[in-house]
Specification:
Blueprint lengths: L1 H26 L3 E4 H7 L7 E16 L4 E7 L5 H6 L3 H10 L5 E7 L11 E8 L5 E9 L10 H4 L2
Parallel strand pairs: 1-2, 4-6
Antiparallel strand pairs: 2-3, 2-5, 3-4, 5-6
Length: 160
Amino acid sequence: MQRTKFILGGLLILSAVVYLIASSTQASAEYFMTVNEVKAEGQAAVGKSLRLSGAVIGDTVQYDPNTLTLTFDIAHVTGDNKEIEAQGGLAEVLYQAVHDPSLERITIVYVGPKPDLLRSEAQAIVTGKLGEDGIFYAEELLLKCPTRYEEGVPEQASGN
């Protein structure tokens, strides 16, 4: 009898732990998407926690230092690494994305300090939510600027 109570108590605790893990994982899940995928989802993407990647379109960057509001557009970039390599590498893909007006674009709004790497043809990776107005409200902004790292080894690193 006492052993049955112990087993039932253990199963109850185990099921509670499994439930808490499952519910917290679903609540914090982020979907990694491209600009085309978000546009294709339409209203279904609104309000979901998303991670979005695209090429920064330099002439759309606007920054208000008083409110720390940064607004810019990103253009679609494929998420397939094999396709990126086939097209000449990330720097070439970002360049083509920025200069191809036929590609899908999304406006990003981020509140925070303006990053030094924010420039045309940088790869932006933003985490946030798509608003009803079609604007992506970013809570986190990461930038990659592949052309910055392609110049070779700096002199101090090469031992000269």
